[in-house]
Write a structure and sequence with these properties.
CATH class of chain A: Mainly Alpha
Mean pLDDT of chain A: 95
Helix content of chain A: 55-70%
Number of strands of chain A: 3
Number of domains of chain A: 1
Shape of chain A: globular
Oligomer: homodimer
Distance between the termini of chain A: 25 Å
Largest interface: A-B, 40 and 39 residues
Radius of gyration of chain A: 15 Å
Largest sheet of chain A: 3 strands, antiparallel
Strand order of the largest sheet of chain A: 1-3-2
Strand content of chain A: 5-15%
Structural class of chain A: alpha+beta
Chain lengths: 97, 97
DNA sequence: TGACAATATGAACATATATTCATATAATAT
DNA sequence: ATATTATATGAATATATGTTCATATTGTCA
């Protein structure tokens, strides 16, 4: 394993930082199965609409989720299966601790 | 995939939070191959001894690294290969972005 | 024992970040 | 057109967190 350069280190830590917030993890968790609109995410994880929207923006900016618009609804979904893999890898670690 | 309960979510986000700092990622990065003493880590990643020591404590408390003492040196090493796996999974994601 | 080296730690400071609140924007329906 | 619904956003506030600086601790060696 060759060492990562400074830039990669930054990118990597930024990526993990996104996963390092419970609201965002909750969002990812409920998106594992299906896409959901903002209101449903808010209801399911019991976090205010505004807070969810703010966090969705962060998730979107870091390309962990994507969205599609339908009328005045916005449906969010996980961007790719790396998100799921990273998530599950973390779960494994926790379950063995 | 069944949904995680609140406690697991917290644990998971706390785990990722640890990876979400560039100094800690730098430390993990240089520990991928070999154990190292604090001074060597400090030198290699160019972060002060004190800052490294503080971060090593966080890594140790969250059980991502372990250590052994030898004289007045302390050698740190990665706790298990989950750490490496999570790290590499993150790298993959970055390299495809 | 005394000096030195390696590491750990506490307090202070600065910065980052998450939530709330109020409100803006945009689409729909009456 | 107006009211309503869904979502986004900006400012403010509160909290969390990382680094520095000074110093404590612990072990080694003369």
């Amino acid at each position: 394993m060759t060492l990562l350069d400074e830039d990669k280190i930054i990118d990597l830590s930024e990526l993990f930082k996104i996963f390092g917030d419970s609201t965002r993890v909750k969002i990812i968790n409920v998106l594992l199965d299906n896409e959901l609109c903002v209101g449903d995410i808010s209801d399911r994880i019991d976090v205010s609409q505004s807070a969810v929207s703010h966090q969705l923006r962060i998730l979107k900016d870091s390309k962990l989720v994507k969205f599609r618009k339908e009328g005045n609804m916005t449906y969010y979904y996980l961007a790719d299966d790396h998100v799921e893999k990273i998530f599950k890898m973390g779960c494994e670690h926790i379950n063995e601790a």
